[in-house]
Amino acid sequence: MIRVEIRKRLGEFALDAAFDAPPGVTALFGKSGSGKTSLINAVAGLLRPDAGHIEIDGTVLFDAERRVDLPTHRRRVGYVFQDARLFPHMSVAKNLAYGGRHDRERVIEMLGIGDLLDRRPAALSGGERQRVAIGRALMADPRLLLLDEPLSALDAERKAEILPWLERLRDEAGLPIFYVSHAASEVARLATTVVVMEKGRVTRAGAVAEVLSDPAAVGTIGAQEAGAVVTARIAGLDRIDGLTELALSGGRIVLPGKLGRIGTHLRLRISAQDVILSRDKPQGLSALNVLQAEVTAVDEGPEGVAVGLACGRDRLLARVTRRSARALRLEPGLPVWAIVKASAVAPQDVGGAV
């Protein structure tokens, strides 16, 4: 368990954040300027808080009252920046060795960088550079890994290249990770816990599926980024149409493409703006995904109405206009039908389940 409770004044900006992070990936999520990077800099020892406490598994890194402030090199925290910051004159092998020699072969295999060892950073793609930077951080045997928006400088193709490796890192590294991002699709795919930040404060914290599907959180997350996270099992493959059939706890949906072997579990992000609601069971639609659900919450905000839905054990989220909410007379307990276009779930929103 990692405990963070810090306060820091930075000119006109005030960082005042407190949360507990269980094992796994904790995403620090929020808009630019919300204090995410300042917070992990404080955890790393690069920024000294004015007050507060930082602790990892019983080891105190910082405590203002007890005057404890471990220097950065004694905190055993690995830090990966947005721009990788590899030494350009060194090969990949020497960059890794600069970080240390802990579990070298396992790190190289886990990140798939064995074929890159003789190259220099200039000969690597953006995704390859970030994998090497993560490897260098892991070679120092950290007890916590900090990733500061590692995909923000990459194009869509490079992001698609590195996301499976980040999933593997999450599943196999065996250490907690703080992952800074302002992209809901990355958070939904990688995180086990999410801490939502706004103007230096924590506004929401908890399991990723609960926080991202909470209608009351849409105002902070942003209407365009809002969406639910569900876990599904591959139940069938349609070779004629090239579709994968997925079993959810509350029904079945299909998505385009071959997404894996039958029985494999996946994590999906379904955007709130891609869910259509109906009071009656739809008939004669081209949409293939129709799920029976129940309204759990209705939250009106400046950009429309966020509607929470229970679909079996899963939680979905829909965003509708105020006019539609009135016309459907939406209220908690109301049975509805949720319609999701098969093409609405983007490839980057589908990943391996934790």
UniProtKB/TrEMBL annotation:
NCBIfam families: modC_ABC (TIGR02142). The keyword Cell membrane applies. InterPro entries: AAA+_ATPase (IPR003593), ABC_transporter-like_ATP-bd (IPR003439), ABC_transporter-like_CS (IPR017871), Mo/tungstate-bd_C_term_dom (IPR008995), ModC_ABC_ATP-bd (IPR011868), Molybdenum_import_ModC (IPR050334), Mop_domain (IPR004606), P-loop_NTPase (IPR027417). This is Molybdate transport system ATP-binding protein. GO terms for molecular function: ABC-type transporter activity; ATP binding; ATP hydrolysis activity; molybdate ion transmembrane transporter activity. Residues 284-349 form the Mop domain. Residues 1-224 form the ABC transporter domain. Pfam families: ABC_tran, TOBE. Gene3D superfamilies: 2.40.50.100, P-loop containing nucleotide triphosphate hydrolases. GO terms for cellular component: membrane. Keywords: ATP-binding, Cell inner membrane, Cell membrane, Membrane, Molybdenum, Nucleotide-binding, Translocase, Transport.
